[in-house]
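User: I'm preparing a small set of examples for a lab meeting where we compare how different chains pack in three dimensions. I only have the primary sequence for this one, and I'd like the structure in C-alpha cell form so I can line it up with the others. Please keep the answer compact; I'll paste it straight into my notes.
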Amino acid sequence: MKRLLLENDGFISFSLYIVLIYLITVYFHFYNRYMMIIEIRTNLILTYENSIHQIIGIR
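Assistant: Understood. Below is the C-alpha cell output for the 59-residue chain.
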C-alpha cells in the first residue's frame, strides 16, 4: 500500500483536490438553500405582522 501511494502521488493529490472542491460546493449549496429558507420565513413573518397591524389599526 505504501508503494502504491508513492507511485501514484500526483493522482491521489489530484483526486483529493477534486473531492475537496466537491465537498465545498455541496456545503455552499446547502448553506445557500438554508439562508434562502430563513429569508422566506422572515418575509412571511413581516407580512403577517403588517397584516395584523392593519387589522388592528396601529399603523
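A couple of notes for your slides: The helical segments are 2-7, 9-56. The longest helix spans residues 9-56.

User: Perfect, thanks.
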